[in-house]
Specification:
By secondary structure, this protein is mainly α. It contains five helices and no strands. Helix 4 runs antiparallel to helix 5. The longest helix has 32 residues. The radius of gyration is 27 Å and the shape is rod-shaped. The relative contact order is 0.09.
Length: 107
């Protein structure tokens, strides 16, 4: 009997590194392959949702940075300064929408 088979802890470590042994004539081999594929896709989907959620949060927090930089283009005495207010309102609405829907993305 190999050394790994004697120790339960070492056997578990080996299985994590190599994977479990394939059973000859396994009647559930197809289902196991489908389940493995499904869980891999779930991991990819979860990573994608996490990335999207982070991006949306960054977009929602961009309002302050954009408005500060817009002040240099449209100072308060500039006749086009109301554009800055309109942009700020639109970005606030976007932020509210993103944060409101963000909870739907979190699993």
């Amino acid at each position: 009997m190999p050394f790994f088979e004697k120790s339960k802890t070492l056997r578990k470590i080996k299985e994590k590194i190599r994977g479990v042994k394939r059973i000859k004539g396994d009647p559930l081999e197809g289902e196991r392959a489908m389940a493995s594929d499904f869980f891999e896709r779930c991991k990819i989907f979860n990573t994608t949702v996490d990335t999207l959620s982070r991006i949306m949060e960054q977009l929602a927090s961009a309002n302050n940075e954009l408005m500060e930089s817009a002040k240099s283009f449209f100072p308060d005495e500039n006749p086009y300064a109301p554009i800055r207010l309109t942009m700020s309102e639109a970005l606030d609405h976007l932020k509210t929408t993103i944060r409101g829907r963000g909870s739907n993305l979190e699993g």
